[in-house]
Fold these 2 entries.
Entry 1:
Amino acid sequence: MNTRRVRRRLVNGIMTGLVGVLSALAVLALVLILGNLVVKGASSLDWNFFTKNPVPAGESGGGVANAIVGTGIIVGLACLIGLPIGIGAGLYLAEFGSGRLGWVVRFVADVMNGTPSIVVGIFAWTWLVKPMGHFSALAGSVSLAILMIPMLARTTEEMVRLVPHSLREAALALGYPRWRTSLRIVARTALAGIITGCLVGIARIAGETAPLLFTALGNLNFSTHVLEPMQALSLQIFQYATGPFDDWHRLAWAAAIVLMGLVLLLALSARWAIRQRHGASR
Amino acid sequence: MAPPADARLQLEAVRLTALYGRRAVVKDVSILFPARTVTAVIGPSGCGKSTFLRCLNRMHELSEGGWVTGTVLLDGDDIYAAIVDPVQLRRRIGLVFQRPTPFPTMSIYDNVAAGLRVNGRRSRADVDAAVEAALKRAALWDEVKDRLKQSALALSGGQQQRLCIARALAPEPEVLLLDEPTASLDPAGTQRIEELCHELKTNYTIVIVTHNLQQAARVSDYTAFFYVGDLVEVGRTEVLFTTPTQERTEAYITGRFG
């Protein structure tokens, strides 16, 4: 009796400790990455870094303003293309996707989810860059959107499926047409989850490098023209980090901080938005 | 036979059979729900009561594999006729479920207004008046009038159920179907909803599915006893409970099974 109780306590203690250590390890990895970034890059983060464009190699100073704006434009455009399609496909899968077409769409989405991003980049190069005759931000956005759509479709589907069936029936019993039930009741109830899904999707594509190498290419100058090559933070990091100059390496670290900061900001603002929506109902 | 004088609000099932795939769960049921009465549908669990109720506003056909034969007449018109739009029809026959189903993203006000808004544009004042009237009829107005903009989830279970009744009443249906509306409520909440049935039957025709025999006896004018998909017996409540004609009915209401 007594030994059993002691054994239970012992096992409980060991397991709790083990789980604690493992989660600490998980957090440790993140802390190490962030710490490393800050140590190596924080000193290069100044006003010039955000407002100036790159200067020729060898000269000191200069910043990555063009890359920050470029990432904003490329990712923004990718969202414009990818969010409606991805969310729409997810809604379709959850609400009407029980048939053969649903099965096909789901299968394609799963396969696309596992496709290496570099393959998507080559695809965009073949079908957009080559026919157009030049690299462009638009092609970059399209390749990022392609990466985003299957992920969005599947998360949206999962989130919509979590909405209780009884809610759907309540709306239908009130005389809601099916499409209106899907949009006004089901999708709205799942909105917090869908937004979180979008966020994870945006965060993932914001840091993508491989597809942009084939499409947006990069640009040493400030450009907002979506049909021209454009710089992006991930490309800038890649170019600076693989370059031979110490100055470039420092700038690459700093750019990495900015990229992570952007993703973090995105996450926080979306969480805030969700809380606002749920706190003060209309 | 000439139609009765008050054909409006009257609901009638004619040889109604409800199936899931090839399995019939309601078998060849014919029953009349007279206008401005409360009819209780009783019977053991899984005997097709809820399915039957869902056939009355064409919700059953939305279930996986659900379909019906026979028909249902509302005001003498076939609701399963090809020209009838089931979406429009459901606005005339309201349904309240066993568990409260407030729309979680909407305020109390918007929940009640939901059925009105889907019915086409109305003026703000119109909706305001209809929401207030519906909440008053559902005996919820006094408890929520100062917090109409709050989330519907802030209400208690009983209040949520009355909110759902108000939501069903707001578009002014002709018939109200209640599927065990008090199953998840405490005695006080149950009593309020039963009182509500009494008040509402001056304007509506009500069909209430219940597990609770006392409740059936308290609220209804007519009682229908279902057993494994069959309508065994239907009659005036006081008659059915005191002198049932069928042995199975008697066995059920005296508690020998079910």
Entry 2:
Amino acid sequence: MTAAEAPTLAAIQIHENERREIVLEKPGTYHIELIGPGAHANIHGAFLTTGKDECEVNLYILHKAPHTSAQTTLKGVAKDHSHIRFFGRIGIAPNCPNTQSFLEERVLLLSDNAKAETIPELEILSDDVKCSHAASISRIPEEHLFYLQSRGLTPQVAENLVVEGFLEKQ
Amino acid sequence: MSRFAAKHTTALDDSLKDESYQHGFAFSTDQYKHIIKPGLNEHVVREISHIKNEPEWMLKLRLEALKQFEAKPTPTWGGNLSEINYDQIRYYLRPTDRQEKSWADVPKEIQETFDRIGVPEAEKKYLAGVKMQYDSEVVYGSLKKTWEKDGVIFLSMDEGLAKYPDLVREYFGKLIPSGDNKFAALNTAVWSGGSFVYVPKGVEVKMPLQTYFRINAPNAGQFERTLIIVDEGAKVHYEEGCTAPSFSSNSLHSAVVEIFVKKGARCQYTTIQNWYKNIYNLVTKRARVEEEGEMIWTDFNMGSKLTMKYPGFLLVGKGARGETLSMALAGSGQHQDTGSKAFHLAPHTSSIIISKSISKNGGRTSYRGLVHVAPNAYDSKNTVICDALLLDPQSRSDTYPTDRILNSQVQIQHEATVSKIGEEQLFYLMSRGLTEEMARKMIVNGFIDDVVKKLPLEYAVEMNRLIDHEMEGSVG
């Protein structure tokens, strides 16, 4: 394990057979450790940036016991000159079979000057695992806006509606 | 293809099945014409340049690169490079004095080594066009008449420098300057061998240009330098296959490949890397793609102790396209740290990166990639797909992707999965009468199928055989 994954004081630990909902409310560095068999975490974070905001989320999800699972979703919408950076690492320690972990990072860019970086990483040291991540960065598809506008919404309202739906917790 | 490939394994040469004797023997280097004493210093660099009778500017470039190499720290972000002992590496070897004209003139023991690689079936057809690199220089090479007629240049880099100094000077080190990274600097300082390819405007080279690289001296560092220029509207497919015999001490292979793809041109570069498992393979590869051009890297890594290789493309012209298909197999003691870099620097550019990796017996595979979209590269698209298969609990798989997007009018996607061979898949196949080993091979071959089918047929067959061979006895 690299130094970055070493437990810190701020680490959130999830114990045996515990199920935890975690909502990331502000940018920063989070360590989440699943330390008992049967631990499960649902992690969700949604961020909207405007002006010259710099939003950086560093998330470490470490599976330290067998039969653990985690589902992580990070969503971001960047407006104006703002910058979103999502770093997420799923680590699975040796001898942790039957582990499942999924990390999703989705970013919508609403302005030509907005920037985004997604860095979803995996470090897998056990074999009986199902582990995946997905990341995407795009603007709102034209056809979505067109559809809403054809129903009588102004472009601004249409955009707000799409953003609202995008950031909503599923 | 995989269905037939399974049958091939039973007919595999016995010598190929013995782990202790992977792909040939090491022969003595007594008859080599030039062996420079191990170690690296200014004197060695001057001597290499002197032996090759190079122009002054090249010597200057080499000496400058040597300083950069010495000044740069060893990178620590990837695999473990701390065990490389630069003082024990020989930086230049030349087996025979001149380029051999026909196969019969090639020294017998060199012929023998090539026969034992087990690939001649695939190359014999192309023999007239094949250039093989035996240690540091091209030993055998003759161009097909048709290419000569079309003005296609396919030479060793040394010949290229001697015959076309202006062309080489215009492009050499322009895409990968010696200061790019420590190993690009090392290569620039001591390079020898490699290929120089120029395809003139509108010429389509139908037959792939093939080169077989091979290291055959203990501690032989192989530092080949390849420069490919594909002029407007031209097309070429360059293939490089590697295999090396066993040595006890660690060898270093550090190549630099620069490719210029001009307007509307297309270049495919295929590598099959099967160095012996004590070799460090640290390679820098980059292509510059102009308007409507296309660059395809097909990169297969099976051998070596540590491979660090991230073929990249700079999409600098409107509508340029890049593609990387990468496959890695890591066994015991191996670390394959591979991936790709995509730089979108112009509008309407697109790229696809597909990576498949397999780790077994404690091997480690890593995907490391970068997607960069510049502010002016609107309407660009990129897709990255990384799939990893772990065959046992000791093995390891990592994915380190970075997407850096400075533009909103883009579609960027990244996906990665890590899994093992599913019990239910095995159960299904075994219930249909396959043994566990056959079932595992079938699943693994199916896993890499989409990349393997992009290979020329002979390579695809060879690839399936190699995978089957590597998988042998993997049922634990």
